Amino acid sequence: MNGLPLPQRLARSVGVSPLSEKVAHTQEVLYGPLIGWARRSPFHTGVLGHSIHPLLTDVTLGCWLSASILDLAGGEQSRSGATLLVGTGVVAAVPTALSGAGDWAGMEGAERRIAAVHALGTDLAVFLLLGSLIARRRGRFALGTSLGLAGNVIVAGSGFLGGHLALNRGTARRTASATDGSTADRS
Fold first, then answer.
1. Residue 118 sits in which domain range?
2. How many helices (H) and strands (E) does the chain have?
3. Is residue 96 included in any domain, yes or no?
4. 2 in a domain, yes or no?
5. How many structural domains does the chain have?
6. C-alpha to C-alpha distance for 120 and 73, rounded to whole angstroms
7. Angle between helices 18-40 and 79-104 (to 10 degrees)
8. pTM value?
């Protein structure tokens, strides 16, 4: 493992961490019924040959990153656009999370633990961006900008773990049969 680059070593250590297992167990307890529904929902489909979750993350993260760019470079006249983008990202986070939960329901072992930490980071980012939206709607744009930037930093780290799962571990690959509860095709 020492020959691996630092990011891969980090992802692997998350996958074997007992703390990550506790995070996964807690999420099962908190979100159990929702996870089961997500697994059977239209957001968990094999029609594309892979999970729809990565596609949906592009919408969510694109909105949030664009809002932060407007916040930093657009000045006062871009506040309404940035607020709209943050709100759109928060709304888009719902189907994105449901599709991810459906995928997570079929994972085991290290993938399950890595995905649990990925989801925890994403949940935290969603709450920060929701706080950013509320602050913006109340005219507290500096606070909204700060919360948005913090959310983007956290979601970048969480996204790294999600990318590791999808690209290095192949968890996003599947066949149409994966929607019936069978495991993903990882060949």
1. 26-39+48-178
2. 6, 0
3. yes
4. no
5. 1
6. 30
7. 90
8. 0.86
